[in-house]
């Protein structure tokens, strides 16, 4: 086996997976949450070994427990205790490397990077661009190094995949000295997922990645779309922060910036109140009272007009970006849907592509409605653009990139 431990450290949570890279099978996964509170929650799941079948299967129901978790170092100890008590044994499956999801790499990091003290300093300094994410990511790095001091630790940046954006795509039309002084530009996010999906689509179709023009919709509670030309990100919807672009669960996506000036001047709203409005009280939640698309669909079935409007606004934005990216690419060979909504909401996929017949996009209703799992075609045989559902696996992509760095 070639075990790699993947860590996704949030401000009050720690997600992890131990992946055997020889078989690309998950050996165990877990979530430690409510870190820093009096009562934290930890869950740990062990999967069948690769010898037991072609895909992992649950050995037991997920084991959960409640206990105080003071900080990320304590959270890592909870994880180690779970491996010791429930398996697999880290003595027998010791990770050869640890991969860390880091949200913001700025313009400095364009590839997975071995974490050294100077890199830790850079991640900390970039917290000014991602104050909710990078400090938590770095806390995970520090705790993981204490737990696993003798193996390489690798940072895989959400922004790295989008470092191939051309200047015309990443430059905002504001005073260039102001932009340079404050490092304001489009960075893009969800890069690990977009990279995984674009490469998985090419492999599934048996076509060279370099020959394909692709549009990838990552639709979850957070959502983004990327235009991929020959494997390179050339346009993406998220920008300086993950707030820009598509309508999301609680985020507004694109708005007129003058609206914020109006709300500050006439509505008396502070910077923090505006931040809270756009990031936590907008999107589907702001329009319909729920950030869960299943609730929106149920509301539509009940005749709820706010639910209908929320869905229509959501889809309107998807179509707008699809059309724009078709224009930027000069047409597309593949359109893929991934993440929670993208993989599980046929109504959204159908509505998003409904008007794109002119561009050779034709969805097969039966294929689109199928409950089949895994990567699959949902377009008609006559469609000149292949439409796919591609389950994303960001942890596996992080593990792959981590292993590549660890072996150099």
Topology:
Layout: E1 3-9, E2 13-20, E3 25-33, E4 40-46, E5 63-67, H1 72-86, E6 97-102, E7 113-114, H2 117-125, H3 134-147, E8 153-157, H4 167-170, H5 176-181, H6 191-205, E9 213-219, E10 223-229, E11 232-236, H7 258-265, H8 271-280, H9 283-288, H10 293-301, H11 305-329, E12 334-338, H12 339-344, H13 346-353, H14 365-369, E13 376-377, E14 386-389, H15 394-406
Parallel strand pairs: 1-6, 6-8, 9-12, 12-14
Antiparallel strand pairs: 1-2, 2-3, 3-4, 4-5, 7-8, 9-10, 10-11, 13-14
Which terms summarize this structure?
single chain, 408 residues, alpha/beta, eight-stranded mixed beta sheet, six-stranded mixed beta sheet, globular
Q: Which structural class best describes the helix and strand composition? A: alpha/beta
How much of the polypeptide forms β-strand, as a percent range?
15-25%
Low-confidence stretches: 52-58
Global outline: globular
Number of strands: 14
Task: Report on the architecture of this protein.
This protein is an alpha/beta fold. It has 15 helices and 14 strands. A hairpin with a 3-residue loop joins strand 9 and strand 10. Residues 52-58 have low confidence and may be disordered. The longest helix has 25 residues, at 305-329.
Can you describe this structure in just a few lines?
The protein is an alpha/beta fold and 408 residues long. It has 15 helices and 14 strands.
């Amino acid at each position: 086996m070639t075990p790699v431990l993947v860590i996704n450290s949030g401000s009050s949570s720690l997600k992890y997976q131990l992946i055997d890279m020889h078989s690309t099978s998950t050996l165990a996964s877990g979530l430690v949450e409510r870190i820093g509170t009096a009562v934290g929650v930890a869950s740990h799941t062990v999967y069948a070994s690769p010898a037991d079948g072609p895909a992992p299967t649950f050995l037991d129901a997920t084991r959960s427990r409640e206990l105080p978790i003071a900080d990320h170092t304590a959270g890592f100890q909870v994880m180690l205790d779970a491996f010791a008590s429930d398996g697999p044994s880290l003595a027998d499956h010791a990770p050869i490397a640890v991969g860390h999801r880091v949200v913001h790499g700025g313009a400095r990091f364009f590839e997975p990077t071995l974490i050294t003290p100077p890199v830790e300093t850079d991640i900390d300094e970039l917290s000014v661009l991602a104050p909710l994410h990078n400090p938590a990511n770095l806390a995970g790095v520090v705790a993981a190094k204490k737990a696993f001091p003798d193996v390489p630790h690798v940072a895989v940046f959400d922004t790295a995949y989008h470092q191939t954006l051309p200047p015309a795509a990443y430059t905002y039309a504001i005073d260039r000295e102001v932009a340079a002084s404050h490092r304001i530009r489009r960075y893009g996010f969800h890069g690990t997922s977009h990279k995984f999906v674009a490469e998985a689509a090419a492999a599934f179709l048996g076509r060279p990645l370099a020959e394909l023009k692709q549009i990838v919709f990552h639709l979850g509670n957070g959502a983004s779309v990327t235009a991929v030309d020959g494997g390179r990100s050339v346009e993406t919807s998220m920008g300086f922060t993950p707030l820009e672009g598509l309508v999301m669960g609680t985020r507004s996506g694109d708005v007129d910036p003058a609206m914020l000036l109006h709300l500050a001047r006439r509505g008396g709203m502070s910077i923090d109140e505006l931040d809270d409005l756009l990031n936590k009280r907008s999107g589907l939640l702001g329009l319909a009272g729920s950030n869960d698309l299943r609730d929106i669909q149920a509301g539509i079935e009940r005749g709820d007009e706010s639910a209908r409007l929320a869905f229509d606004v959501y889809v309107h934005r998807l179509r707008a970006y699809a059309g724009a990216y078709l224009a930027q690419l000069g047409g597309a060979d593949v359109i893929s849907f991934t993440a929670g909504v993208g993989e599980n909401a046929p109504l959204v996929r159908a509505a998003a592509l409904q008007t794109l017949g002119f561009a050779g996009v034709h969805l097969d209703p039966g294929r689109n409605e199928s409950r089949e799992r895994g990567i699959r075609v949902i377009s008609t045989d006559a469609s000149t653009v292949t439409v796919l559902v591609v389950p994303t696996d960001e942890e596996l992509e992080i593990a792959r990139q981590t292993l590549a760095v660890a072996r150099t």
